[in-house]
Amino acid sequence: xxxxxxxxxxxxxxxxxxxxxxxxxxxxxxxxxxxxxxxxxxxxxxxxxxxxxxxxxxxxxxxxxxxxxxxxxxxxxxxxxxxxxxxxxxxxxxxxxxxxxxxxxxxxxxxx
Amino acid sequence: xxxxxxxxxxxxxxxxxxxxxxxxxxxxxxxxxxxxxxxxxxxxxxxxxxxxxxxxxxxxxxxxxxxxxxxxxxxxxxxxxxxxxxxxxxxxxxxxxxxxxxxxxxxxxxxxxxxxxxxxxxxxxxxxxxxxxxxxxxxxxxxxxxxxxxxxxxxxxxxxxxxxxxxxxxxxxxxxxxxxxxxxxxxxxxxxxxxxxxx
Lengths: 112, 199
Known about the structure:
The complex is a heterodimer. By secondary structure, chain A is an all-alpha fold.
């Protein structure tokens, strides 16, 4: 029977220092950019804090983290496939006409 | 590039330190948020539960560790958007003492938990809000900031000018400190630190 428990928040620093680089590498190669990789690593750590089972040993813990990170990377890739985005640079290319470039500049200054 | 070279290159990739810090901070905030959300799920006992929990948290922390623990908190804009982070209740995690008095008050701060966040990644440290009170309780100096100094061996020395006060017994009261790491947004650290001195 799986023994689940919420871990003390202090434990997250040790986990980030121990496994952070490995997870970041994995996510960066899978997703192709550092921002998404950071998001996935963070979500993995939050899940570790809130839902991780009791581990038999270090290898079990590592395997669990890799599995969670891999699944989250798959979610991101699936989301990207269903919600394609356009790079801002590509839009800028389309407005090479001097008459239109000010529109993009104005759009960029709007608050989020 | 052959396979081994490729694998070795990948192994050299490391998570930047500021990214590590952000992840740790966000994990703390997320945990805190989840705890607060759970408390508000039952509207009938919200007020009583909240008051009880605040008291219990303080009492439990004091009972088990003998001290209150600090925590990260969102800094929110007027419209609710999160614009930064602060660190609260750090009184028992930093020690303050008067190191020397000349025409300035030289104060030394010591990080008592240098291996935990946020102290593990701070590089510079200063005072963000302080006041000096005389024996009668009157505030004689009240100022916002003292420039940050470099943190060395978990200690930092800060100088507070005293050129506007006369001789006598005073108490330095610090309510906010500020720390920063290179190229990062400064972090305000709240707590209560007091020490007496004679000028």
